[in-house]
Amino acid sequence: MHERLSFYVKRESPLHQLNPLTKLTLIFGLILPAFLVPFYWTPHLLLVLVVFPLAFLGKVQGEYFNAATRLILPAAGFLFVMQALFIPGGEVVLARVWFLTLTQESLLYAFANAVRIFVMISSFTLFMLTTHPSELMSDLTRRGLPGQFAYVIIATLQIIPQMQAKANTIIAAQRSRGLDTESSFSRRIRALVPLVGPLVFGSLVEVEERAIAIEARGFTSRLPKTSLREISDRPLDKGLRWLLLAMMLASLLSRIWFS
Amino acid sequence: MKFFESLKKDFNTMTWVLIPVAIAINVVMGQIVVVLRLPVYLDSIGTMLVAALCGPWAGALTGTLSNIIWGLAIDPNAFPWWPVAFFIGLVTGICANAGLFKNIWKVIITGFLVALTAAIVSTPIAVYLYGGITASGSSFITAYLLQTGRGVIEAVFSTNFLVEPIDKISTALLAFVIIQGLSMRFVARFPRPQNIEIQKGASKTQLWIALVVVLVLILIAAFVLVRILAPGG
Amino acid sequence: MPVVRLQQVTYYYPLTETPALQDINLEIEEGEFIAVIGPNGAGKSTLCYTLAGFIPHFYKGELQGTVEVDGRSTQDSNLSDWVLRVGLVFQNPFNQISGAKYTVFEEVAFGLENRGVPRNEMIQRVEEVLEMTGIADLAARSPYSLSGGQQQRVALASILVMQPKVLVLDEPTSQMDPIGTREVFGVIRKMAQKGMTVVMAEHKMEWIAQFADRVIALWEGKIFLEGKPQQVLTDERLAEKGFGVSRYTTTARLALSRGLWQAERPLPVTLEEAVSGFAAIRNGQSKGKP
C-alpha cells in the first residue's frame, strides 16, 4: 500500500525541469495528433519516435517501461482483441469464430486504436512520473486556478490510499468473521453493509473537523495567495507551449482537410 | 450574475472538503464491488452524495475529477468517459434540487433519469472513440447486436440502456440510505440541506406517482429507441 | 484593557431549543492563561468555537451578546480575517492535517500561503515556529506519517505561524498517549512563558494547575465557578456536578475527613502539592512526639 497516490520519481532531467504547464500541454500535443491526423501510421510513429525517447530524456525509462508492460499493454491489448473480434465489416476475412469474423480491416483498425490508447496513457504516465502534484497545482494556482482546486486534487490523492487501507482492514476483519467473497450472491450483497457503513460514515464525519481546520488557516481568504514553491517558467517553456499548440491546431486542420 | 452567486453558495468549505472524500468513496467502492464480485459498479455513490448535498455543479466536478483520478491511478481506459461522470453529477444535482431526493420512490426516479443520461452521453464516446466496442464487458452485448445487423449507435445505446438503470438506481438508493444515516446537524453544514429533508406523508400515493412516472419514462425511452432504430434498421 | 471581552453571550446551535452557552461574561487580559473545565456537554467546545469565530460564521445558529477580541467583534468580521486574531487547535490531530500538502514544512506554510504572505517571510516564519514547537527535524516528513503528539504539534505550529493574538486550545491532548501529552504540553508551556494569551479547554487537572492563571468552570452552558486554579479545582461542588477532579484532591479530601490532612492547608491538585502536604503532616507528627 502506497502512503500516497503519487507516481512522481525525483530525478534531475530536462523533462523534470520543464514547467508543469508545458508538460500538460505536451500530453495533449501527443494525444490530439494521435487521434486526429488521418495518416494511418501517426500514432505508431509518435509512440516510437516521441514517447519512448521522452521516457529516456526524463530518466524514468525504467519506471515507464515497467508501467507500460504492467498497466498500459494489458489495457491496450484487451481493447485490441475486443475490437479486432467485434468490429463488423471488412472484406478480407482472416478467420471465423462462433458468430464473429476477423477481417484484415478490423485488425488494422483495432491495431491503430490500441496504439492511440497506448500513446494517450503513456503521455499521462510520463507526465506523472516527472511532475510532482504539488508543483503542478502551485503552478496552476499561480496562473489563476482557484486555490480550492489545488486543495481538492492533492487532498484526493492523499485520501484515497488512506481509505483503501481502511477498506482492506475492514475486508480482512469481515473475512475473519466468515465473509467469503466466493459465497452466494445474496450473502455478498449483505456483506456490502458492514463494509460500506464504517468506511463511508467514518470518512464523512471527518469532513466537518477538516473544514474547521482549514478555515482556521485562512482557506476562505480572498487575498491573492502566495506559494512556498518556486516554479521555473523559462522562455524555452513558453516557446515549447506555442509550438505544441500549433501542432495541435495543425492536426485538427489536417483532420478537417482530409475528411 | 445570479448563477455565479448560487454557484458560490454551493461551494463552501464543507463542499471543498467533501469532494476529495467523495472521490475516494467512488474509487474505493468501485474496488470493493470488484472484490465482492457484484454485478454493479456503484462507483458514483460519492458523486451522488455531493450532488444531493451541494448541488449539480459540485456533483459534476466530483464526477469529472473521480474519472480523471480513476484513470490516472487504476484504469487508464476510464479517461475518455469523464463527460459521463460529469453528467451523472449534474443530473443527480438537478433532480435533488427539484426535490427528487427526498424519499425512496423519488430517488428511484432520479436513478432512472441519471441512467438515461449516462446511456445517452456515453454512446457517442463509445461510437466515435472506440468504434462501438470498448474495453468493458457489456461490449459483448453490443457486439452481438452489431452482428445481427443493427447500426453502431443503436447497438451501443441499447446496450447502455440495458446496463445503466440497475447500476444507477442502486447507486442512488445507496446514496439516499447513507444520507438518511447522517445527523441533521451535520447535513445542515452543507449548502443544500433542504434537498434531502425527508418527506413524510402519503407514501402510497407517492409510490403510485413514482411508478407512473417510471412507466412514462420507459415509454419515452422506448419511443426514442424506436426512432433511433428506424433509420438504422 | 482586556484583549478578549464577552458580554452577555448566549448561543443556540441550529435546530436546538436549549442554549449551548448562556449569559457568559468574560474578560481576558493580554498574556493571561485561562483554563476552561466542565463535564461533557457543558459548553467547553462551544466557548472555544465562539472565541475562534466558528460560531456564528461556520456553525450558524443564533448568537446573542458580543464577542470582542482586540476591540472588534466576531459578528463584524470575516472568518478568514478572524483567524489572525484567534487561532484554534482542537482534539483530533489527524483531522487537523489539511491534506493539501505533502510535507510538514509545506503544511505549516499553508495558512501563510492562504494569507498571501511573501515567500521569504513565509520561510523564515515557518522555520522559527518549527524550532519553537520542536518539530524542525520532521520538516521533510509527510504529516500523515507522524505520531499523534507530533501531528498535534504540527497543528499547533500551523496555527502559531499565523501569529494570532489569542490561542484557543480545545482539549488538545485528549486523544494523546502520555508521551504525546507531554510533548504537546511542553509547547503550550513555552507559549505561556512567552506571554501568549491562551484559552484552553482541558480536563487534565494536574496540568491546568501548572499553567493556568485563572480557571473557569462551565456547567450547562453557564459559568459556574471562576477563580484561581487552586481555589476552583479543589471546590467541593465539582465532583457532585460531574467534573473531573484530580485524584490528589480526592485523596487529600478523604485524608482530611480522617484527620490526616492539615485543615488550614489548601487541598492539593498536583502530585507535588500532595506530597508536600502529606510530608508536612508527618513532620508535624514527628515533631509532636516526645
Topology:
The complex is a heterotrimer of chains A (259), B (233) and C (290).
Chain A: H1 14-17, H2 20-36, H3 42-57, H4 61-86, E1 93-97, E2 100-103, H5 104-130, H6 133-142, H7 147-176, H8 185-215, H9 235-258
Antiparallel strand pairs in A: 1-2
Helix pairs in contact in A: 2-3, 2-5, 2-9, 3-4, 3-5, 4-5, 6-7, 7-8
Chain B: H1 2-10, H2 13-35, H3 45-54, H4 56-73, H5 82-97, H6 104-130, H7 139-147, H8 152-180, H9 184-187, H10 203-232
Helix pairs in contact in B: 2-3, 2-4, 3-4, 3-5, 3-8, 4-5, 5-6, 6-8, 6-10, 7-8, 8-10
Chain C: E1 4-12, E2 21-28, E3 33-37, H1 44-51, H2 54-57, E4 62-69, E5 72-73, H3 79-82, E6 86-89, H4 104-114, H5 119-132, H6 148-160, E7 166-170, H7 178-193, E8 197-201, H8 205-211, E9 214-219, E10 222-227, H9 229-233, H10 237-240, H11 247-257, H12 271-288
Parallel strand pairs in C: 3-8, 3-9, 6-7, 7-8
Antiparallel strand pairs in C: 1-2, 1-4, 4-5, 9-10
DSSP strand (E) fraction of chain C?
15-25%
- Stretches of chain C where pLDDT is under 50 for at least 5 consecutive residues are none
Tally of separate domains of chain B:
1
CATH topology of chain B: Arp2/3 complex 21 kDa subunit ARPC3
**Main sheet characteristics of chain B:** none
pLDDT average of chain B, as an integer? 84
How many helices of chain C in DSSP terms? 12
Calculate the mean pLDDT score of chain C and round it.
92
What is the CATH homologous superfamily assignment of the largest domain in chain C? P-loop containing nucleotide triphosphate hydrolases
Q: Measured on Cα atoms, how large is the radius of gyration of chain C?
A: 21 Å
Overall radius of gyration of chain B: 18 Å
Gross morphology of chain C: globular
CATH class of chain B: Mainly Alpha
Tell me the span between the first and last alpha carbons of chain C.
58 Å
Element string of chain C (H = helix, E = strand): EEEHHEEHEHHHEHEHEEHHHH
CATH topology of the largest domain in chain C: Rossmann fold
Order of helices and strands of chain B: HHHHHHHHHH
Q: Portion of residues in helices of chain B?
A: over 70%
**Residues in helices of chain C, as a percent range:** 25-40%
Strand content of chain B: under 5%
**First CA to last CA of chain B: what distance?**
47 Å
